[in-house]
Amino acid sequence: MDVLKHKCFLEELLFWTIKYEFPQKMVTFLLNMLPDQDYKIAFTKTFVQHYAFIMKTLKKSHESDTMSNRIVHISVQLFSNEELARQVTEECQLLDIMVTVLLYMMESCLIKSELQDEENSLHVVVNCGEALLKNNTYWPLVSDFINILSHQSVAKKFLEDHGLLVTWMNFVSFFQGMNLNKRELNEHVEFESQTYYAAFAAELEACAQPMWGLLSHCKVRETQEYTRNVVRYCLEALQDWFDAINFVDEPAPNQVTFHLPLHRYFAMFLSKAVKCQELDLDTILPDQEMLMKLMIHPLQIQASLSEIHSNMWVRNGLQIKGQAMTYVQSHFCNSMIDPDIYLLQVCASRLDPDYFISSVFERFKVVDLLTMASQHQNTVLDSEHERSMLEGALTFLVLLLSLRLHLGMTDDEILRAEMVAQLCMNDRTHSSLLDLIPENPNPKSGIIPGSLSFESVLSAVADFKAPVFEPGGSMQQGMYTPKAEVWDKEFDPVMVILRTVYRRDVQSAMDRYTAFLKQSGKFPGNPWPPYKKRTPLHPSYKGLIKLLHCKTLHIVLFTLLYKILMDHQNLSEHVLCMVLYLIELGLENSPEQESDEEESAGGQERCHDSWFPGSNLVSNMRHFINYVRVRVPETAPEVKREPPASTSSDGLTSSQNSRRKSLQRENSGTAQVFSLVAERRKKFQEIINRNSSEANQVVRPKTSMKWSAPGATPQLTTAILEVKESILSLLIKLHHKLSGKQNSYYPPWLDDVDVLIHPEIPRYSHGDGMTAVERILLKAAIQSRLNKRIIEEICRKVTPPVPPKKISSAEKKTLDKEERRQKARERQQKLLAEFASRQKSFMETAMDVESPDADIAMEIATSEQHVSEAIYDCVICGQSGPSTEDRPTGLVVLLQASSVLGQCRNSTEPKKLPTTEEEQIYPWDTCAALHDVRLTTLQRYFKDSSCLQAVSIGWEGGVYVQTCGHTLHIDCHKSYMESLRNDQVLQGFSVDKGEFTCPLCRQFANSVLPCYPGNNVERSLWQSHSNKCMRDLVQEVEDLQEQLGTFPVSISSETNLSKEMESVMKDIKSTTQKKYTDYSKTSGSPDNDFLFMYSVARTNLELELVHRGGNLCSGGASTAGKRSCLNQLFHVLAMHMRLYSIDSAYNPWRKLTQLMQDKNSELISEELPEVPVLYRDVSSLLLIQILTMPQPLHKEHFTCIIKVLFTLLYTQALAALSVKCSAEDRMTWKESGALKKNTSSGEKSWEVLLGHVVSELSKGKIYEEGETEELTVVNPDSVECYLQQFCLPFLRITSLLQHHLFGGDLPSCQEDEEFTVLASCLGLLPSFQSSHQFTSASCLDWPVPAFDMISQWCSELASFADRHPDQVKALLIQEPKWDLPRLLQLPENYNTIFQYYHRKTCTVCTKVPKDPAVCLVCGTFVCLKGLCCKQQSYCECVLHSQNCGAGTGIFLLINASVIIIIRGHRFCLWGSVYLDAHGEEDRDLRRGKPLYICKERYKVLEQQWVSHTFDHINKRWGPHYNGL
């Protein structure tokens, strides 16, 4: 590297810029002047001149990441311009500089290679543990190099320059054999090195990407010369490498490197030469010896993959599995495994097939297994690994012979095959498919081949499944799933095996294939992988077919078929499957010249020392092999038998291996015995002798068998085995064996000759082993008349050929085994079915939290109704029994504060999320706001204690109680909590806060609600309508209320039950914040508690109503069925309500049922008056009345209370109506009412009553204030309708309450008859008349004369009006009609939200927040994790969740498009409701696709919010420590 000499200021500037590691301001300054053309050229030349200095500085830098980015920031501006790059290349030797700089850079971290010959190796490789590689420090330089190679003119210079190519191959060879793995045989490695990440990244970035860049310029015939150059220097580098590592013919055992970039350069340029440049392959291939060497290391990798998956490398730790997976992973496979397999295919097509096949089995260490003997000794492999290694070897051969990725497929066919393989493993999202389809890894090499057709291929092979929401709560993305015809015709198990990173994906593909066949009715059982026809081979690779037609392979196939038939150990269905696949491949690709001469008889004599007469599979299939000589351990069963007199000389040994004619060492006289490995060595020797002139080279092949400890070989002896089978007869017997029946195979052409003419029969394309055998036999028969005849002959011998006795018993054994297996399978099926049905019934009872509107009437609830005493099962100790005072049982409940009700609005149109400054949302019209205003107004004018009984609270921060329906003993629960406390496992909940999961269904819970002893439901008086008159009942109710303090469970004696009831009451109170329970002016007043307790009941009833859709038309049992806990909740509340006595003077019951005498007394008193009866909320009164009565309540008293309250409600409706209509209307009503007043049914006619109300209220100043909104048409029908609508909410709440307290289903009805149905259900309608003459007034039942009562109630208002005339009307008109709670409506396109909010400033600090979010309930803009808005260690989102949702917040994170839920002290990521055109989320907006609202998902979110099921459905919760 030359010394820098600076001649101008620019050079000096750049020098110091580099010295100080590219300060940002300098970079910007230097880049800003680039528009000046002269400067640009001068600067580029200076940059190139300093390139080596840049490299040195980069290597020393501590902030190499930042520096790298800044270097590339500059260089990408300079080198992306082709004209400039060419100029600098010519004038400043840019290519030389770059390659040299890269070479120098890597030279600093080289170590001696330990591959092959550890002592004498001269090869050096990069050390992957060095920072340079670990931190990818080289990438800016490599990326510049890739960048300039993308220009045709520059690449051309590179490919023509021999010196450069030599240097570059030298650079690549530094990576050849890096990160060598040595198999640990004894101890597990202490430290698992993770250097393999660096190694794979380095090969991909520094070797493969430049290679793909160069390949992109070798696309046409004219570029043949370039390919020749690269191949030539590549081979030279490889030859140097073989010499440096001292490689002869055997790879060193127990070593593997996954990095062979030189092999891959060679392979990829060969492939390109044949595919695009029409080069003759043989002109650029090296000699046989070189090919033999070339195949060794890639083959070693394939065998090692199999070893790793067989757990033979387990002591090397997980990282070795990681390497095996990365090697085939989608970003690496087409630069690693694909070129390796292609190279092996090229070698196989040019080398001797017998040599190649025996090499494969030797590399996979299974040669010893391939013996006909039932026992064998394997010196190189433990028996537990034999099976999977044999499977590996056969699978590799199938891959080698089936793959056509580089052997003739077009780019579009490849894309289609890749896509089908990925889709068959699993349904895929669009983005993951894009990611999984291997593409050219060089970003600069232009479009991916076929990238234009990605969408068209996708639509051809797959159907889109829209995103759905699974019941388990997991969100589905939009998925692509293979079309039926793809499964039928294109499913290719070979491609799937090649592309699977995890072995389980192969199984997954097979399972999906099985499911498709079952569903489409094509095949019911367990199918085998289908055989798929291959693309024709490119003529250059025809030699590959020879592998299928060589004796060695046929011997292996024959032996394996025989072993499988004889049930030898270590064989599997997979082995058989692959054997049949290979036979079928051979039949499909048979050489043309199959001769049908009748030479089978003479043939046998001629080939008396070998197994098969020729090398053609078609004729070898019918060749009978009578006797085989085997080498077996002396203990083997075969030894006992005397050889027959006429021993045929077919010998097969397994001395070191198994296989073929006879070993020179053994002069047994009959046959030259012959071993696979010896044969292979001999071939190798011949080739070397042919190729080399030096005599001393002959000595090279030393038997490198140092790993088969010589002393370990056991005594072997020769035995002769009677076989008398051919491949065809073995296949037919296998068919019998697979079917479990004798003579199950019958040649199909005997019935239907057409089979031979049109063999493509769909019935053979899918099926199991028997189908495969039938298909093969049919193909064999079609290919040769002789085969056809022999198959028929074998089948004609109805009695199976008589084998030695041993076999028949073995076969019998297999039959028995099959039968036993079948029975076991049936038993298992039965058990599984039973288990599934149990599970199903459990799921139905326990898990129905997903949709509150799945009307499930629980059988359990109904069956319990007839028992005198409720029996509960404890899910912890499993005992059943009643709940008693000493040992109470409780329901597992989740208490949560809820403001959902407060979000109801009185408009049916949901509010939109604001996306402009104009669209702000003000929460004035929400239910919570209006109730708040009402209470405050009442408190201004009336006595506090009375105000707190005139309304309900809990619209915001009310406590909602839900249960999964499981019960447990409270003492069991306490010990359960203790065990959770001691459990150190990290739980998603906080045990200290009382949280736990139900021991049975794992639903989230935080308290236990005691069950009241005795019968749940008081039923005896349900049917019989009581005969007592109204007046008696009213009196009884009053008397019962007087007995306050007495309670069936006496408070005086503290029992366990009452203690638990108190503690659960504390829990309920502490569930919500203080501000939601404290409404009285004097804090801590008992009235507060009183109000809070009956409001809890109100909240739960109102929420149940909301879950039913806001009305009771659907009827049925409570949707929650067994999961409703209102009954138990009522008992707990009632017990506590009765601790507060109501002074009898103020008991509202009296005001409702008696005429008071002294009206004036209260006006004199100083304090504020009580709230007039007409201003009180009737539903609240109902709950107060019921909860202060002794429990259990009698049905007749309940009905009595309802009747009395209905009269008040009706009067309120009339008063509100009278205020709403105009003065003329009022006069009309007043007069018409007065006329009918004295008729018999006066008290039950709304006209009369309305007239009376108007005349009574006119006494005060009520109507004097200005006109209010008028009811447009005041005809009798609209009045009736108004009155019914006014009364309906009360009737609904009351019906629900009655249903929970007394059981009985709710009747279902149409919406227009809801009023009449509910009224009759509640016993307000004495007899149900036909509806046309029905009026709501007919439900009235006055305890005292109506007109007197009304006058008394109205006079209270009149006296109030005298003092505060402005407030009278406002308080009278209550807004009864609320729409269901809804989340804000979101815009269709996410961009609308993003553009408005991501620039919006925080109201506190006026900066744009880093993580903006918006509340989907009220539209408030908040800063997630923003410190500016933090108050007393609470961040804004957490604070807002408490203020807006009483602890539940739903926020859309603007910059991530996801929704987070905050629930109390926990939070979870819910998912996104915005999906792209392919139905996928884009979390963190990484992919930058346009997103559109998914209405289904948003509905699900809203549904979970309304039904309070976030805790149950979303699984991944974590604590937020108030930091959100």
Structure commentary:
The strands form nine sheets. The protein has a six-stranded antiparallel β-sheet with strand order 17-16-18-19-20-23. A three-stranded antiparallel β-sheet has the order 12-11-15. A two-stranded antiparallel ribbon has the order 1-2. The chain contains 58 helices and 23 strands. The two termini are 56 Å apart. With 1524 residues, it is an alpha+beta fold. A hairpin with a 6-residue loop joins strand 9 and strand 10. Helix 27 (551-565) runs antiparallel to helix 28 (573-588).
Strand order of the largest sheet: 17-16-18-19-20-23
Mean pLDDT: 81
What is the gyration radius calculated from CA atoms?
Answer: 45 Å
- Main beta sheet, described? 6 strands, antiparallel
Count of runs of 4 or more consecutive helical residues: 58
The coarse overall form would be: elongated
Helix content: 40-55%
**Main structural class:** alpha+beta
Strand content: 5-15%
Tell me the number of strands: 23
Q: Distance N terminus to C terminus?
A: 56 Å
- The parts where pLDDT drops under 50 for at least 5 residues are 594-609, 640-674, 692-713, 798-812, 845-867, 1016-1025, 1045-1052, 1159-1164
Draw up the topology in text.
Layout (H helix, E strand, L loop, with lengths): L8 H11 L4 H9 L4 H13 L1 H10 L3 H16 L2 H11 L1 H14 L2 E3 L11 E3 L4 H4 L4 H11 L2 H9 L1 H12 L7 E2 L13 H20 L8 H21 L10 E2 L4 H15 L5 H4 L3 H22 L8 H11 L8 H14 L2 H11 L19 H20 L8 H15 L4 H7 L17 H8 E4 L13 E4 L1 H7 L2 H7 L4 H17 L30 H15 L7 H16 L11 H7 L10 H4 L4 E9 L42 H16 L24 E10 L1 H13 L14 H4 L11 H15 L1 H12 L8 H42 L12 H5 L8 E2 L6 E2 L7 E10 L28 H15 L2 H4 L10 E12 H13 L13 E2 L6 E2 L1 E4 L19 H13 L13 H16 L14 H22 L18 H12 L10 H6 L7 H4 L13 H10 L7 H26 L2 H14 L9 H12 L18 H27 L11 H8 L24 H18 L4 H5 L17 H8 L14 E4 L5 E3 L12 H10 L2 E6 L5 E5 L2 E6 L2 E2 L16 E2 L1 H12 L3 H4 ...
